[in-house]
Protein 1
Amino acid sequence: QVKVVESGGGLVQPGGSLRLSCAASGFTFNRVAMKWFRQAPGKERELVASITRTGDSTNYADSVKGRFTIIRDNVKNTVYLQMNSLKPEDTAVYFCVAVAPYGVGDYWGQGTQVTVSS
C-alpha cells in the first residue's frame, strides 16, 4: 500500500523558514520521482518543485526559485522542501506526490497547511 505523508507545516512570519517533510512507503522510493504542489484558496493547484529519482536534477516554479529547495534522502525514503524567505503569497496547502510508482497514477499525500502571516 502506497503511503505519502507530509509534515512540517505551520504558521510562520514573513521572511521566515519552514522545512516540509514527506515520508513515503509502499514502493521502491529510489525509483520514483517526487514532486511538491501547493494550492491556495481560490487558486489553481501549482507545481512548486520536482526532483528526479536519484536527486541529480530538480525543477522549481519561477515563484519560488532561489527561495525553496527540494532534496531527497533515499535511505530514509523522505523528500523535503526547504522554504526560506517566505512570503504571504506562499500561504497554501502543500502536497507531496509520488510520480506513478507503479507505472500508472500518481499518489498524493493529504497535504500540510503553510500560513505566512505577521
Note: The chain is about 0% helix and 50% strand.
Protein 2
Amino acid sequence: QVQLVESGGGSAQPGGSLRLSCAASGTNNRAYCLGWFRQFPGKGREFVAAISARGDFTDYGDSVKGRFTISRDNAKNTVYLQLSSLKPEDTAVYYCVRSNSAYSDRDGFGYWGQGTQVTVS
C-alpha cells in the first residue's frame, strides 16, 4: 500500500519561501516518479513539478518554473518542493503524487497524498 504524507505547509509573505516534504511509504517508491500538484480554492488541480525515479529528469509547470525546485532523497524515501519568490497566487493545497513508472508524463500519477495548505499573504 502506497502512502504519501506531506508536511511543511503553512503561511508565508509574498517573496518568501517554504519547503514542502513528502514521505513515501510502501513498496519501492524509489523506483517511481514523484511529483506535486496543487489545487486552488474552488478550482481544479494544477501540475506543479515532477522528478524521475533517479532524479535525472525534472519537469515544472510554467507558473512555477524558475521559482520552485523539486528534489528527492531516495535513501529517505522523501521528495521535496522548495517554494521561493512566493506570490499570493501560489496559495493552494499542495498534493504529493506518485506514478507507476520511473518517468511519467503529467497524467501518469495515480497515487495522491492528503495535501498540505500553503497560504501566501
Note: The radius of gyration is 13 Å.
Protein 3
Amino acid sequence: VQLVESGGGLVQAGDSLRLSCAASGFTFDDYAMTWVRQPPGKGLEWVSTINFNGGSTYFAESMKGRFTISRDNAKSTLYLQMNSLKSEDTAVYHCAKAPGNWSAEFNYWGQGTQVTVSS
C-alpha cells in the first residue's frame, strides 16, 4: 500500500487549497478513504471520510461547509477541497485507507502534506 499526498502549501486565511492523494498497491475502489490531520504539537484529528464509491461522506463539525472530499476511482486518487481556510487549519494532512468499504478507521496512511494558513 502506498499513499502519496500533494497540494499543500502556505496560504492566507480565506484562501483555498485542493489536496490530492495518489493511491497504489491495493484495489482503490474497494475501500473507504479518510483524511486526517495533525496540527503542530497535537495528535491526529479526523477530518473526513468517503465510502468506496463516493456515495457517502462524513465531515468533522468544524469542516462542514468548508471542505469537500471526493475520489476518482479510475485514477485511484482521493481529493480534499478546502475553502475559507483558517489559521486553525494549519496541520500536516494525511490520507488514510480504511480496512473496509465504509469505515472511518484506517490501517495505512501516507507521509502527509503540510498546510500552513497565515492570518
Note: The chain has a mean pLDDT of 96.
Protein 4
Amino acid sequence: HVQLVESGGGAVKAGGSLTLSCEASGYTSVSYCMGWFRQAPGKEREGIAAINNDGVTYYADSVKGRFTISRDRAKNTLFLQMDSLQPEDTAMYYCARNPGYCTGVLQRWQYEGQGTQVTVS
C-alpha cells in the first residue's frame, strides 16, 4: 500500500523559511498527482499545492508566490519550500497523492500522510 512520510516541520519566526519533505513508497500507478494540504486547529482543511507528472503545478492563493512545490522523481520525494512564513501559516501539513491528473489543489486525497507540524510565531 502507499506510504507517505513527511518531515521537516518545526518552529520558525515570521518571515522565516522551512522546507518540508515527503518520502513516498508502495505505489504502482504510473500517472499520479502529489500535493500538500494543511489544517489548523478549529479550521477546515486547505489544499495548498499540487504537482502532476508533467510538472504542472497549482497553488492556493494564500501561498502563491511564497511556497514552491517540487519533487525528485528518482528518489520518490516531494518537497514544499515555504518562504516568508506568517503566523497564519501555522498548521499541520500533510503530504498526499492521487492516481491520475490534478487540475487544481485538493482538500482531500486518496492517500494522505500523517502530517508534520509547522508553527510560526
Note: The first strand starts at residue 3 and ends at 7.
